[in-house]
Amino acid sequence: MLELSELEAKKTLQKVESLSVSALIKTVLESKEPMLSGKRLDVIVNAGDDMKIKGEPFLLHQALSNIIQNAIDFSPAGGRIEVAAHVSDKRLFIVVSDEGPGIPDYSMEKVFDRFFSLQRPDTGKKSTGLGLNFVKEVANLHNGSITLENLPEKGLRATLALPV
After folding, report:
1. pTM score
2. What tens digit of pLDDT does each residue of 47-93 get?
3. Tens digits of per-residue pLDDT, 137-154?
4. What is the DSSP letter of 142?
5. Rounded distance, CA 58 to CA 17, Å?
6. What is the CATH number assigned to the segment(s) 16-163?
7. Which pick of 9, 80, 103, 131 has the fewest CB atoms within 10 Å?
8. 50: Cβ–Cβ under 8 A, 6 or more apart, which residues?
9. Within 10 Å of residue 94's Cβ, how many Cβ atoms?
10. How many Å apart are CA 98 and CA 41, to the nearest integer?
């Protein structure tokens, strides 16, 4: 909560560094390994080693961590999560897709609101409802965006877009 309040008060980035996108993804996935293996989730990564992004490392790590945590929470045991990154039109896109239930249409706009949370399919529990709000604030601070899209069959695609 304190991190979110501090983030909302920020007007500019403080510690901008050039980051390897593949290293960022790898670091976040390594931190999630116990949860990934606990649910027997298969993770497919498609991100070139040469992609770079400028931004605050801590904030970008936390934002991607929140997105991937949601994919873990909403994925069925034994499912698959895909993490891909590509550059197009001077923007870096980090795309996380899962095989979960997706987001009900009535909740699609609310999921970025502070304290809004959906029940996890496995446990029925809700989170604090701060994660996607935090991701949105980080994206805005980096002059980027976060979008969510239900996939046609099942699952959700979260796309973090940042200028390069």
Report:
1. 0.88
2. 988 899 999 999 999 999 999 999 999 999 999 999 999 999 999 99
3. 999 999 999 999 999 989
4. T
5. 10
6. 3.30.565.10
7. 9
8. none
9. 26
10. 10
